[in-house]
Design a protein that fits this description.
single chain; 268 residues; alpha/beta; Oxidized Rhodanese, domain 1; 2 domains; 5-stranded parallel sheet; 10 helices; 32% helix; globular; Thiosulfate_sulfurtransferase; Rhodanese-like_dom; EC 2.8.1.-
Length: 268
């Protein structure tokens, strides 16, 4: 199953008797005031991550996520398509969260609200769904893409490739040992607001040594930006990709070893 769907695919599916459930992860004022996709429910980004001081940006917990999807009127067997208006980076975090908590069919809209609104109709006001009783079924650890700090250390010992999805100045200030940089925005086409063509994506990944035969560990600061990269790599068929949710924030708090300094040609 491809985790990324086109706008035309979604527009066609919305005309069927069994349309996907659409989740808009923008803030409520954007959703209601600017407009949203037809039938979309609003699940703001800050509601599906832990905002506590001890775990900024981490998963909200399966019970909290279940309550959130229940409020949104979502069933466990629904096809979900998530979107935002920031090239999909916030919606990708929703997708990864749903996958970790056992939702099998969740997709990311290629592009975002702005891209959709150029070609397809939108609505305003809030959709009030009928509540469900959503029961998450979190993936067992051996099936989950999540990896903890000890797992990252073990992956380093095995020769895994660490991929930093942050900006260049962040990378130069501190990065995990041996990491290469892939700014998550590099894969997005500025004009279409969706992904660049597959051939172009494969080429830019190969330039950095990010190839499907490698064990890959993704990190950023608080797991938002790696969500988009994780979904893109899944879309391209990469199978051995780990998601370091604690990212550099946790690594530094634990006094993990880092590298600093100017990026080389592969990481600029």
């Amino acid at each position: 199953m491809d985790p990324i769907v086109s706008r035309d695919w979604l527009a066609t599916r919305l005309e069927t008797d069994d349309p996907p459930r659409i989740v808009d992860v923008r803030e409520s004022w954007e959703y209601e005031g600017i407009g949203h996709l037809p039938g979309a429910v609003n699940v703001p980004f800050d509601r599906f991550r832990d905002e506590g001081d001890d775990a900024p940006g981490m998963l909200p917990g399966s019970e909290a996520f279940g309550e959130l999807l229940s409020e949104a009127g979502i069933e466990a067997d629904d096809t979900i398509v998530a979107y935002d208006d920031t090239h999909g980076v916030f919606a990708a975090r929703f997708l990864v969260t749903a996958l970790v908590y056992g939702h099998e069919d969740v997709r990311l809209l290629s592009g975002d609200y702005s891209a959709w609104s150029r070609e397809h109709p939108t609505e305003s006001g809030a959709v009030e769904p009928e509540a469900t009783e959503y029961e998450p079924t979190p993936l067992p650890s051996e099936e989950s893409p999540l990896i903890d700090r000890a797992g990252v250390e073990a992956a380093l010992d095995r020769g895994a490739l660490l991929v930093d999805t942050r900006e260049e100045f962040e990378f130069e200030e501190a990065r995990l040992p041996g990491a290469v940089r892939l700014d998550w925005r590099t894969v997005v086409d500025d004009e279409s607001r969706g992904l660049k063509p597959r051939e172009e994506l494969e080429a830019l990944l190969a330039e950095r040594g990010i190839t499907p035969d490698r064990e890959i560990v993704l990190y950023c600061n608080t797991a938002r930006r790696i969500s988009h990269t994780y979904v893109v790599l899944s879309h391209l068929g990469y199978e051995d990709v780990a998601f370091y949710e604690g990212s550099l924030t946790e690594w530094l708090a634990a006094d993990g070893r880092v590298e600093t300094g100017e990026a080389d040609d592969r990481t600029k």
